[in-house]
Design goal:
By secondary structure, the chain is α+β, with helices and mostly antiparallel strands. 29% of the residues lie in helices and 21% in strands. Strand 9 and strand 10 form a beta hairpin. It binds guanosine-5'-triphosphate (GTP), oxaloacetate ion and manganese (II) ion (MN). The site of guanosine-5'-triphosphate has 22 residues, from helix 9 and strand 17.
Length: 613
């Protein structure tokens, strides 16, 4: 197709644009020229538009409409089997200097990377519609709203972005009114259509590039339609780019849930918790407490932006608008709050199984396994199949305001003051159920050495233990040592008497017989109660070399079938296991080289001395 044929699309784009924002128009024109879509569509975020898009997605075979009596206004779709998770090896932080991307990230010279990407994006939207989605992460009326515009050639991405972020005309108006900066976030599935070529249900490209330019604060994502790779407001903006903004502006952008807990005495506490992908954030965020008189309300399940307020308190907001939760393991017994939200409908499911009556199912949803399903790849499935019906990283995408237990403060741009921060991972051994840090820096040490077995949320091997500092390993937009130093120094802005207490938790420890040492899920409320009682100076603890763990009778076990010996097992600090762990931490810290903050190497030294004593 020659340039002449392109000109009408471009002219039409600019003529029909619902904005006069010069930078936005220039960027849209530039991208349109590069990617050569058939048409350009400006997303307004309306209900009617959503209906139109989902109708088209059903027509194209990307989505199936679910039985409205079971799941109103809901859809399920299956991705290409090679496009089911985030692709960490294909994710790049292209800072000007390699040093600033750090040893945990992939790096390439930005100019060289732009050259490669321009080649990939050239003509990549041919035969498709190019959608322009104005969005804001966080509140539109925040003091300093964080805007973005995603350009994508995927209607699935547009529909999902509408659930996950505040998008559309209101946002565009505000960008204009403030003449605000926006993060340009460019996405293409990388599957242009030649004239007459039939589209596939899930277009994508074998070659994937998830690229961030931190200084420019821009994102280029190519080849994947999967959530974390393609919904660019989520990991790409709200963690990788936002962590750089946060470093420069003195705040924190973290992979954390936000939970409000109210005690029987009617005192409210707010807890932030960082666990790696598929390690329990959504579940704890939607906690159903098993202890009498305690009430849980949620503010967020994946991303938490925190800053010290004028009062010196660390205030947290969830910049997202929806849940993009791991489906398997989400069930009526483990997470009824999520199930109730999903049952209200208005959801998009990806890679789940379909029931014969037009509903969805996944492992762990119900105790009873259906006799027949269509599995996520479209094959007949029975319980004898010997393979999961839903992909292990299948997801539900659901508006957060459908959660009955949503805290009213979710809607407050000022957020909530955090009382406790939890760092947690998935470890079969070594790490106790809960350990209280001695102080803020000791807590940062715990976060910096956090480790977890890998999960299906990212492509690659599952079950391999790796260090995942603050659960941010795949999401830090800059050097890991600088990131840890920022955590240490940012606390200087806070009221030192009100700094949150930090705890390390592990819901996944196993006993000798292979079972979980702790029942988890709703019973995690017992651990939170202990943490709160530690804040109040009410609960007992045993001092160990790594910090304070509960005494068996300081944990509320009312109604739980657990002996004090079993609790000891769950919280024990085993010197032999820790000898191994210390070696692992030493190796991990060695990888930082010069950039490791000296406060943290000092922490390791003290820990080694404590074990040696
Ligand atoms: N044993 C045990 N498993 C848990 C617990 N909480 C969550 N899980 C399991 O952890 C897996 C996923 O947890 P999620 O809460 O969806 O993970 P997440 O941290 O929100 O993950 P991302 O959305 O990928 O960032 C599911 O298989 C759950 O069954 C717990 O307390 N105990
Ligand atoms: O980003 C995604 O696709 C889902 C998610 O929350 C994670 O992987 O941590
Ligand atoms: Mn996540």
């Amino acid at each position: 197709m020659g340039d002449n044929a392109r000109q009408p699309v471009l002219d039409e784009t600019l003529k029909n644009a619902p904005t006069t924002h010069a930078k936005l128009l220039a960027w849209v024109a530039e991208v349109s020229e590069l990617t050569q879509p058939d048409s350009v569509y400006w997303v307004d975020g309306s209900e009617a538009e959503y209906k139109q898009l989902t109708d088209e997605l059903v027509e194209a075979g990307t989505l199936k409409r679910l039985n409205p009596e079971l799941f109103p206004n809901s859809f399920a779709g299956s991705s290409d089997p090679k496009d089911v998770a985030r692709v960490e090896e294909r994710t790049f932080i292209c800072s000007e200097n390699e040093r600033d991307s750090g040893f945990t990230n992939n790096w390439m010279d930005p100019a060289k990377m732009k050259g490669i990407l321009r080649e990939r994006f050239a003509g990549s939207m041919r035969g498709r519609t190019m959608y322009v989605i104005p969005f804001v992460m966080g509140h539109l009326d925040a003091e300093d709203p964080k805007f973005g515009v995603e350009i994508t050639d995927s209607a699935y991405v547009v529909a999902s972005m509408r659930i996950m972020a505040r998008i559309g005309s209101d946002v565009l108006r505000k960008i204009e009114e403030l003449d605000a900066f926006f993060v340009p976030a460019l996405h293409s599935v990388g599957a242009p259509l030649e004239p007459g070529q039939q589209d596939v249900a899930w277009p994508c490209n074998e070659e994937k590039w998830i690229v961030h330019f931190p200084e420019e604060r821009s994102i280029w994502s190519y080849g994947s339609g999967y959530g974390g790779n393609a919904l660019l407001g989520k990991k790409c903006y709200s963690l990788r780019i936002a962590s750089v903004m946060a470093r420069d502006e003195g705040w924190l952008a973290e992979h954390m849930l936000i939970l409000k807990l109210t005690s029987p005495e009617n005192k409210a506490y707010h807890i932030a918790a960082a666990f790696p992908s598929a390690c329990g954030k959504t579940n704890l965020a939607l906690l159903d407490p098993t202890i009498e008189g305690w009430k849980a309300e949620t503010l967020g399940d994946d991303i938490n932006w925190m800053r010290f307020g004028k009062d010196g308190e660390l205030r947290a907001v969830n910049p997202e608008f929806g849940l993009f939760g791991v489906a398997p393991g989400t069930g009526w017994s483990t997470n009824p709050n999520a199930m109730r939200a999903i049952a209200k409908g208005n959801s998009i499911f990806t890679n789940v199984a379909l029931t014969d009556d037009g509903g969805v199912w996944w492992e762990g949803m119900t105790d009873e396994v259906p006799e027949h399903l269509t599995d996520w790849q479209g094959n007949d499935w029975t319980p004898e199949a010997g393979r999961p019906a839903a992909h292990p990283n299948s997801r539900f995408c659901t508006p957060i305001d459908q959660v009955d237990m949503l805290a009213p403060e979710y809607h407050d741009p000022q957020g909530v003051a955090i009382d406790a921060i939890l760092f947690g991972g998935r470890r079969k051994t070594t790490i106790p159920l809960v350990t209280e840090a001695r102080d803020w820096t000791n807590g940062i040490f715990m976060g910096s050495t956090l480790s977890s077995e890998t999960t299906a949320a990212a492509a690659g091997a599952v079950g391999v233990v790796r260090r995942d500092p603050m659960a941010m390993l795949p999401f830090m937009g800059y050097d890991a040592g600088d990131y840890l130093r920022h955590w240490i120094t940012v606390s200087g802005k806070g009221n030192q008497d009100r700094l949150p207490k930090i705890f390390l938790v592990n819901w996944f420890r196993r006993t000798a017989d292979g079972g979980f040492a702790w029942p988890g899920f709703g019973d995690n409320s017992r651990v939170l109660k202990w943490a709160i009682e530690r804040i109040e100076g009410k609960a007992d603890a045993t001092e160990t070399p790594i910090g304070f763990v509960p005494t068996p009778d300081s944990l509320d076990l009312t109604g739980l079938d657990m002996t004090p010996e079993q609790v000891e097992e769950a919280v024990k600090v085993d010197p032999a296991e820790w000898a191994e762990e210390l070696k692992g931490i030493e190796e991990w810290y060695a990888r930082f080289g010069e950039s490791l903050p000296e406060q943290l190497s000092a922490q390791l030294k003290v820990l080694q001395e404590r074990f040696a004593a």
